[in-house]
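Pipeline run #58 for the internal structure catalog. This entry was flagged by the ingest filter as a single-chain record with no existing model, so it goes straight to prediction. Upstream metadata was stripped on purpose; only the residue string is passed forward. Reviewer on rotation: M.T. Logging verbosity set to normal.
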Amino acid sequence: MSGLGGSASASSAGRSGEEEAAASLLAEGWLVVARNFRAGPGEIDIVAAKDGILCFVEVKSWERLGAAELSDSINAAKRRRIVETAKIFLALHREYTSWRIRFDVLLLRGGGVAERYESAFTGEL
């Protein structure tokens, strides 16, 4: 995850954050379809499904920095990579062809989900 660096502790923090995010989604009734889906240009942290919505979720652990830095970390290039990776996921999983697609960002602070940005960005699929 960007913003955390590439160290082993950052990787561990990222996995822990993704575990917390997945648990939060499950508690809300979402089915976690995939985690750390890697293909083509990028990675999607979590793919979740609920009520005809397929949601591609970017998870950010964000303890000290503000909204401006969060926005910078999910810049246009990052959004394009996520959208392109989502296209590959959809091509591989045709069962979701008629589902509504959404891109969310889950912001974690203090070990829990602090904020959720639904439809945080859009892309042409």
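catalog note: The chain is about 35% helix and 35% strand.
catalog note: The beta strands are 31-39, 42-50, 53-61, 100-109, 112-117.
status: ready for reviewer M.T.
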